[in-house]
Structures are given as structure tokens and as C-alpha cells.
Amino acid sequence: MIRFIKNTGHLLYRIWFYILVALPIIIWFPFLLLTTLREKWYPQFFWLARNLWATPILYGMGCPPKVQREQELIRNKSYMLVANHTSMLDIMLMLYVSKNPFVFVGKKELSKIPLFGFFYKRVCIMVDREDARSRTGVYRRAQRRLKQGLSICIFPEGGVPDESIVLDSFKDGAFKMAIAHKIPIVPMTFYDGKQRFSFTFWSGGPGKLRAKVHSFFETEILDETDKTTLREEVRAVILKELQKKNERPTTLERS
Hints:
Elements: H1 2-27, H2 29-34, H3 42-60, E1 65-69, E2 80-83, H4 89-97, E3 102-107, H5 116-123, E4 125-127, H6 132-147, E5 151-154, H7 173-181, E6 185-190, H8 193-197, E7 209-213, H9 227-254
Parallel strand pairs: 1-7, 2-5, 2-6, 3-4, 3-5
Antiparallel strand pairs: 6-7
């Protein structure tokens, strides 16, 4: 009986999430559509997505975001934003964390999600990881966006990792791109995605959603031969923070 009640709660929580995702899109559809008609209007689209879509979803799910910053983003400067990825809420949290307009690089499968996918196709850089030409095209489209003064966001774990893995291995793309365009890498740790709204259906629940913006990694003096070292250094920063978070409950239990 208790399990049935818990599963019912999880189901209703999931349904509520999809309502919150769809409702702002329906309400603001004309304005969202208008701002996607020209690439130069993307900053206006980003403002709408951040303030009228992502933020209401986070608070509506009972997941108020708490952001700690070791370094601040400079307005009108381009960055490569990277973070661990364990939840669909990571998209909304990334939009909340960065006031600087950025473009997601993400898998093309997300374009199939009703309503969300319509705008995803129009404003994001989609990649088919099985297609070498698609991966090459990402760099060309990202270069155009960077020249417009935007930032780029990539979740470098690639696909969704097994939830038993604290942090999966990182792909090279974000680091190769950051070095090629000489833009700083901004590592972020998202602590609570698995507990709040993981990819496991019968799970999740309200609670704080914490993020930490770490000190940036500069790339101006680096070349492509440095991408592996850079990738592992960035991953180590995020992994260390996640391991610290996982150790805290054990420490509390012992005391």
C-alpha cells in the first residue's frame, strides 16, 4: 500500500512536470515564435526561455535553485558552459544559472518531444553522434553563434550515464571547441538532479536544487594537443565536488 502511494505520488509529480513544460510554451507561443524568426533576435528568445519558462518550472516543481559562484560571468562575453547531466531539470537549471545568452548543443532526439522539440530544432545546435558529418557541422554552426556574441553549452558526458555512476567520462567536443575559439570554459556542478527528477521514472520529489559555478579555465594559450589534459582537469573539478556531496551523509551518520 505504501509503495502504491509513493508510486502514485511519483506519477503525479512527473505529469505535473510535463504540464509545467508545456503550459508556458502554449501561453507565450506567439512571442517565442517571433523571436526565433531571426538569429539576431535570439537574446530576446533566451530571455523569454530563462524567465518565463525555466524559472517557473523550477519553482513550480518545488525545486528552488541555489547557486554558489566562485567567479562571475562577464556580460557580452562568450563562454563554454559545461556541467554534469543527470536530470531533465538540468536544462532549466542551466538557463537559470547563466544570464548570458547561450545556445545548447544537444542530441537530435530531443527534437521529438512535443512543443519543446519545435523550439529546440529552431534555436539549438543539434548533433547526431552517429554521423561524422553532423559532428563536423556543429563546429561551423557554433562558430557562427560565437561570432554573434553568444555562449555555448554542452553537457560533455554525452548520453545519459548510468545513475550508479557519479560522473561519466567526458567527450572531447566542448574542450576542442573552446580551444579553437579561445573562449573560457565554465565548469558547473549540479548536485541534486538525481534526487529531484532523475531519468528513472518512479523517483524524484521536491527540494532544493543546488549548483556551483567553479573558477573558469582559460584557453587562450592552449592548442588542440591540450584538449585531453583540459578535459580531465575540468572533469576532476566537477567529480571532486560530487564526491564531497556524496560523502556528507556518511559523515553525518557517524556523528
